[in-house]
Structures are given as structure tokens and as C-alpha cells.
Amino acid sequence: MTTIVDEAAAQLAQRLRLERDVRGWSLADLAERSGVARATISKIERGEMSPTAALLVRLAGAFDLTLAGLLLRAEAGEGRLTRAADQPVWRDPATGYTRTQVFMRPDHPVEVVQVVMPPGQRADLPASSYARIRQVVWILTGSLVITEGSERHELGAGDSLGFGPPADVTFANETDSPCTYAVVLARS
């Protein structure tokens, strides 16, 4: 398994199964709703496969959750204060990007995430992942190209971008250096 924290992957697998079970869905039901193959979902739930960000977004969307919402439920964080050492980190096995959940609570409308995108990597996310959120990306170090539908935005350190209407989005680091950025989002 290629996740940063094996315990986090196990918690995520358990949470996916629980979300499916509380809805009374079979693997086939979740596959149909998410567009993710039944065999893939089964492997994820058994801990035999680490899901990519794109897969998690599709699964979260089927449950009417954001990616952050699904990860938060898996990590079961509590309290208003989250120490840096306790902030959950997830690694995308396809790109190697890391995602740190800096702040999120079920009773608070704002979430903060830090992402480190390795050089030469990209993540493609479907429009459905932006359907119920408003999002701003703030580049902390490096540079990043964000493509929303057909609109391309080149961002450098200090630049920020507020997302428009839901569209397929690509986050691409076209440089030879890592890019660190913050995502601040609010549920609508």
C-alpha cells in the first residue's frame, strides 16, 4: 500500500464500507452511483488497493459528501483545535501528492487543506466534486496551472484563485519543483 499512514488507509476503507452499509447499498449500488468499478470498490474496502484522489472524489460524491467530508468522517477528528502533529495526511498513490487536512469540523462551514504537488504531476477532478462547495486556492510556494473546463490559470507564489461554476478541473505542476498550496472551501 502506498499511503503515508497505513492506519489512515484502513480508517478510510472502513468508512467507505460504513457509508455504504448505513445506506443499505450493495457494492453494485455504489458502483452505479459513483461510476467506480465494483471490483475496485471491493479492493479498496478490503485494504488491497489505495484509492486515488479522483476515485475518492467519485465515491464521496455518490455519498453526497466532499472529499474532505469523507476523509474527515474516516479520521473522526474532534475539537476546535487541531495540532499540526494531529492533522491527517493522505497521499495520492497515482501522483504522489500529499493532502493535509488542516482544519475541518462538521459544525463549521469552512475547511482548510494544504496540498504539496510534486514536480511534473497533475490531478484531474470531475465537476461533481465542486457541486456543493465554494473554493479558493492560494499558492504558498512554487507554481501551479489550474484548468477549469477550457479556462487555464497560471498561478505563482502568493496568487489565489476563486473557483467559478462547477467544471472539470486539472491541477498541474508543470515545473521541476514541488508546489505547496492551500485550499479554503466552504460548503454551500
Short structural description:
This protein is an alpha+beta fold. It has helices at residues 6-22, 27-34, 38-45, 53-62, 67-75; strands at residues 89-91, 98-103, 110-117, 122-125, 133-141, 143-148, 151-156, 160-162, 169-172, 179-187. It is globular and about 45 Å long.
Question: Which structural traits does this protein have?
Answer:
single chain, 188 residues, alpha+beta, six-stranded antiparallel β-sheet, four-stranded antiparallel β-sheet, disordered N terminus
Instruction: Sketch the topology as an H/E string, one letter per element.
Output: HHHHHEEEEEEEEEE
Instruction: Supply Rg.
Output: 16 Å
Percent of residues in helices: 25-40%
Question: How far apart lie the N and C ends?
Answer: 35 Å
Structural class comes to: alpha+beta
How many beta-strand elements?
A: 10
Strand order of the largest sheet: 1-2-3-10-5-8
Described by strand count, sense and barrel closure, the largest sheet is:
6 strands, antiparallel
- The fraction of residues assigned to DSSP E strands is 25-35%
Low-confidence stretches: 1-5
What does the oligomeric state look like here?
single chain
